[in-house]
């Protein structure tokens, strides 16, 4: 599936109103080698629209997922706070489900094994499913069993046959947004589960995206943006029932959903979230209108900040070469001369150019050696962690985030 689409990828209804239009953009995680010809960089429409039937917010132009995820630049282990989040999750699920040596845990989009390594250490049998070969190989080298594949119904059936059983716990964290064939993916999740197994899904919450004007989380790798309402519509088509949820602070505000193939009573937390979304009007059109105007206001505030700093002759840099940062910089029209560089701890990104803006990516040490006056922290969701890193390294200049407004840290 690639190119423009006119019907909902989940339920098949004709797509409805525009939610957010960010124009024509480079793919947010496709970093360029320094010798690349910027004029030949692929760019695609980046516009999210609403399905009027199942209320899934989705891109109406799909970029080939195999090209995005086969050689991927995001390594989950790069964030210490994210590793802590994963460790706490594993401990909680081990306790809640009574996982042990006789159990089976399968994680879809397992990345570099950052989460499953906790189950390996605890002696709980597990398997990762990860399509990005370069990332999966890091997990395998670290002792985390990993199959290099996209999750499809066929992949899931093959895994169940090879294991001789379904999984007691299936994990799909921050992957629901990344799947173009969402029905095949949901069917694969259901196939992986043992009859009484539990599926947990973590996904950024559309309600938080709107309230925080988190438009920079919209990029080509994210094909959809999820509310509880839309997830329940999707899961119901594949025999999965959501029975509980937790609110998480990750990625600007996420939901952790618990689902199963067997009937279970809905928790009070789930019922409360259904009511909250209904009260905010997620089933109607008005909730989705006006987001473009809010985005324009955020971008105008940043451009004013940038113009003022440039007029003062300030030396500006960025920190955290995250995909959301690339969406932000490109939506704001930033070019390579606006920032000296952007720092990132990932060696896979260092020495390359940011997609679209072509700002060079350097190590944190190299950035500080450039002696910037002010630094814009692009992944605002982990700003406290990055602020501590910079202050600990001796940076005394101004630190800023730009979403949902310019804020000095």
Protein model, in words:
By secondary structure, the protein is an alpha/beta fold. It has 3 domains: 58 residues, no CATH class; 213 residues, Rossmann fold; 105 residues, NAD(P)-binding Rossmann-like Domain (Rossmann fold, 3-Layer(aba) Sandwich), CATH 3.40.50. It has 13 helices and 19 strands. Helix 5 packs parallel to helix 6. The chain starts with a strand and ends with a strand. The mean pLDDT is 94.
Q: Gist?
A:
33% of the residues lie in helices and 22% in strands. By secondary structure, it is α/β, with parallel strands linked by helices.
Comma- or semicolon-separated keywords:
seven-stranded mixed β-sheet, 409 residues, six-stranded mixed β-sheet, alpha/beta, globular, Rossmann fold, 22% strand, 33% helix
Write the layout of secondary structure elements.
Layout: E1 3-4, E2 18-26, E3 43-50, E4 57-59, E5 61-62, H1 65-69, H2 80-97, E6 105-108, H3 116-121, E7 126-129, H4 133-141, E8 146-147, H5 153-163, E9 167-173, H6 182-192, E10 193-204, H7 206-211, E11 224-225, H8 228-236, E12 241-248, E13 254-260, H9 268-280, H10 291-311, E14 316-319, H11 323-331, E15 342-343, E16 361-362, H12 364-369, E17 374-377, H13 383-392, E18 398-401, E19 407-408
Parallel strand pairs: 6-7, 6-9, 7-8, 9-10, 14-15, 14-17, 15-16, 17-18
Antiparallel strand pairs: 1-5, 2-3, 3-4, 4-11, 10-13, 12-13, 18-19
